[in-house]
UniProtKB/TrEMBL annotation:
Keyword DNA damage among UniProt keywords: no
Domain ABC transporter, residue spans: 18-266
Keyword field: ATP-binding, Nucleotide-binding, Transport
Record SMART domains: AAA
UniProt key word Hydrolase: no
GO cellular component, as recorded: plasma membrane
Protein name: ABC transporter ATP-binding protein
Gene3D superfamilies (alphabetical): P-loop containing nucleotide triphosphate hydrolases
Family annotation (InterPro entries): AAA+_ATPase (IPR003593), ABC_AA/LPS_Transport (IPR051120), ABC_transporter-like_ATP-bd (IPR003439), BCA_ABC_TP_C (IPR032823), P-loop_NTPase (IPR027417)
A molecular function (GO) term: ATP hydrolysis activity
Lineage: Bacteria, Pseudomonadati, Pseudomonadota, Alphaproteobacteria, Hyphomicrobiales
Amino acid sequence: MVGSSARRVAAQQGDSQLVVEGVSKRFGGVVAVQDVSLEVPRGAIVSIIGPNGAGKTSLLNMISGFYKPDTGRVVLEGQDITQKKPSDIAVLGIARTFQNIALFSGLTVLDNLMLGRHVRMKAGVLSSVIYWGMAQKEDIAHREACEEIIDFLKLQDLRKQPTAALAYGLRKRVELGRALAVEPRVLLLDEPMGGMNQDEKEDMARYILDVNQERGVTVVLIEHDMGVVMDISDHVVVLDRGRRIAAGTPEEVQRDPAVIQAYLGTSRSERA
């Protein structure tokens, strides 16, 4: 895509906004992630790829606070967030989407985005009763922020529609919007194009690039479509069986023998 080389140079020159140091996670006798480290440059798009069961979602869950690492730590802009709750991590600027769409299907597009604003809301129930004017002003400001996201994602005609009535690709776009409503500095996307047709994938890829370039949000995504990964990523990290086996630019990763073996090598069948 246009400008990808320039973005990669800029990302390589930037500082590390998110650092994952030697994290591991075990579930009973199963090692999901083992001693994985990575650095995410400020302003970059970093893709995490690997075969099914490689530990990609578990890694995102540790970054976002849904899982606590057994070892290692996660650092956001110099602050250790390893033991913080997911809600606290969201306040600090990390938002995420999920592999399976996690919208409230009975609520409208606008209401789902408003739910994403809750970490930015200061007026609680008591203050809303006592200081109605203040709470009302805050509500108006949050609605304006959500309306701006609706415009950005071209969902204007659907803002009052229940999300259950939307096509799959549109629901994925709404979930992206809800994550943007958190006002993230780092956005974690778990298979944002999973289950989409080619046109929907191209639309989502464009929105991810726009989020990164126009809104200045660092993006970390899990994606299985290698064409998309190689087109939009500044850096690629490859996991296999819970371990990091490669990292680098898309071009470097494509040529890495360990990556080729993990996806295509005979060792895959031998390990099965």
